[in-house]
Amino acid sequence: MWLSRRNCSVAIADVDMEDRKNKLDTVQGLKTARMKRKNSTQSPSARRTKKLKADKDISKASSLESGSNSTETPSTSTTWEGGSKKEEKEDDVTCGQPPLKKVKTETCPQGQPVRFPANASSIKEEVEMNWDIVQVLSERTNIELWVCANIIRLFNDDNTIPFIIRYRKELINNLDADSLREVRQTLEELRAVAKKTHSTIQKIKKEGKMSECLLKALLNCKTFEELEHVSAPYKTGSKGTKAQRAKQLGLEGAARTLLENPGELNLLSYIRPNVKGLSALQDIETGVQHILADMIAKDRDTLDFIRKLCQNRYICIQSSLAKVSSKKVNEKDVDKFQLYQNFSCNIRNIQHHQILAINRGENLKILTVKVNISDGVKNEFCRWCIQNRWRPRGFARPELMKILYSSLDDSFKRLIYPLLCREFRAKLTSDAEKESVMMFGRNLRQLLLTSPVPGRTLMGVDPGYKHGCKLAIISPTSQILHTDVVYLHCGQGFREAEKIKRLLLNFNCSTVVIGNGTACRETEAYFADLIMKNYFAPLDVVYCIVSEAGASIYSVSPEANKEMPGLDPNLRSAVSIARRVQDPLAELVKIEPKHIGVGMYQHDVSQTLLKATLDSVVEECVSFVGVDINICSEVLLRHIAGLNANRAKNIIEWREKNGPFINREQLKKVKGLGPKSFQQCAGFIRVNQDYIRTFCSSQQTESAGEIQGVAVTSSAGVEVTNEKPGKKKSKTAVNVVLKPNPLDQTCIHPESYDIAMRFLSFIGGTLNEIGKPEMQQKINSFLEKEGIEKIAERLQTTVHTLQVIIDGLSQPETFDFRTDFDKPDFKRSIVCLEDLQVGTVLTGKVENATLFGIFVDIGVGRSGLIPIRNVTEAKLSKTKKRRSLGLGPGERVEVQVLNIDIPRSRITLDLIRVL
């Protein structure tokens, strides 16, 4: 159905039950009249469309919108101006980790749903179907109807996930980023199904094969599998189904008569001796059976019943070794699937990684997979059909009942059972792929948010044997100071040690970063031995191991060539390795996410879904960390919410041409950056006030207060501009005040600046106190007296918006929430696998998280595995419990050795606690 505006906005109603009933009666009467007028112009098929019960619930809630404005509570409603809603946020620095267990929430913050305002843009009209997209979205994602309706509107208004999470959180009931991505993906799937359905309908109509029953069946489809099941016989070039051939013989009337008036059915009258398929009574009975079987298999109520029936029955998936193995199959590949060569598991209990493994084995022609449905399901299904849905409307002779029973059996075995198997496999695969992609995203987020190590001179080492170890020394500001190649594993280790020592002393470098690729273990042992001998004295040298995944790919990319022209690609890898410790986020965004190597079965899942999710995670991380508009790179800038490669390039070009940005408002002057893009990106872009003050001072010194053209006043009373003198303004030029604004260095969105200024007047604070201890003291004192809810009400804003303002005013200029995440594990010595003993307690760093366990680097050259069953809620800190038991790369853990398999180099660990 077309989603009307009234079906997608949920109002806050705080009126007594009698008033509510009167309003509902009045609106319902108007709605009925409108629907009658609408139906008079609709096609017969559209008039037959039924609304779901949940659609009525949404309509009831939204119908109160016109009369509920006067009863809204300012702290729970959302203030809009000119169609743009004020932001709200509970925690400024939260990156939206998923909850431990996804449970459908019952209430929103402060206990009431938050509606969209009447002047907001409506939900984009959906393709008409026999189901409500909001209802189905709610069922599939386990999220409330009003939240789903709001999310659809937010996405239709081109809002980005970071913007929604930080500035529109009240409308989504505090959902995290992963949940929003899941909703968006499900929404796109439903729209794709609806679009393909209507495309299929047009094709079938064009061929003249459309019927009333077929149209209804097509409009009932909610998945691609259902659509394929219904439309397959009508595809161009199809030979047609048995039911179609029977209908062409004129037996459809007989089949309907058997159900509606069996006493009048005489099958002998259909015999035609010279017509194939009608020459004998048995042929006619078979034809009627095929038509009935097809009707049963495409009936919505019947399919809904069998699906519901299967939910409470034992359905298992089985895999076995393929009888006819392909000649191309490698014996080693066969051994990898030993666990699944005689495997059986209930589909409700099977793990996601098991599904992906089984699918891979099946694709390689190593495994044969099937779904088994118990006979009890079939028996109960047939009993229900005879007693309810497909019971003849009158007395049917035994021979006719026999045809009906045969039709039920044929429909289940030939049509419904294969459909259910396809649906089960598709659902299991889809869920497994989504979970795998989400795990990849969580790992990527954890890696990107690794705490930076600023202020150090670092030596990056890209290990190697024959071609040597590549060295690169970088300054605290990531500038390349020196590059070299040393041959540590070719009998020249002692001589090369002198060169390394000289480099470390010359550049006062005491931190070595070693890539974890080829020759990593030997290189680590080499440096550990020198450190233990105090060879680098007086320097206290430490080292760490980092992943070099993607470094070689990046080193030969155009981006690397532009950044480090003339430098050998092998040496570029060493530079990248060092920078991954200094500022992991700034370096890793240069690499395509799927090359970072923290996923599971990443080549087996949907590449479109994988890319969309990983790109979204990168955008989320970069946006929440924020960028300094005057010093950030183009690569980093393009990942900010609301920006892309072209807009980032235009910003950099504007900065190079006109000088630094004085404030956020100047972004409006950049080509290609319209109001929507500005709204989405402004809150994540910072203008460092120290940098601007330095710029203002230098410009004032050069020109004694009149700087290069148009004069504007800075916060210090100095008139500043960075516009070129005599430059002709374009007709699209935006007039903005180039006055430095201390709020531009905070997470506060420009649309809330007026609220922030009023809040400052309440507490007696000034802009110059932002981020200082005295500001924090004033805020705390005021909150203790008034309370955040009361203050938000006085300011006529939301609690979320006010919390963002408080965070922005309290956080210092150098605030970086990544400091709360784990730093690299710096070491001075090395431990061997043979040194381990069962029961030994160690500390290590998570390398990768999968659906079956956590891989931990414990410093012995081989990663240990913590089985997922050993990662329990009790072992996690409070901050980790809200992340779906999710440990990610870079986190430090304390573990105990449970088992050591030296021949297979396998170490099994138990998680003691997260450090």
UniProtKB/TrEMBL annotation:
The keyword Phosphoprotein applies. CDD domains: S1_Tex. Residues 26-109 are annotated as: Disordered. It comes from the Eukaryota. Pfam families: HHH_3 (PF12836), HHH_9 (PF17674), S1 (PF00575), Tex_central_region (PF22706), Tex_N (PF09371), Tex_YqgF (PF16921). Keywords: Coiled coil, Isopeptide bond, Phosphoprotein, RNA-binding, Ubl conjugation. One of its GO terms (biological process) is nucleobase-containing compound metabolic process. The keyword Hydrolase does not apply. Gene3D superfamilies: Nucleic acid-binding proteins, RuvA domain 2-like, Tex N-terminal region-like, Tex RuvX-like domain-like, YqgF/RNase H-like domain. Residues 65-82 have a biased composition (Low complexity). Residues 839-912 form the S1 motif domain. Signal peptide: none annotated. One of its GO terms (molecular function) is RNA binding. This is S1 RNA-binding domain-containing protein 1. It comes from Sus scrofa (Pig). The gene is SRBD1.
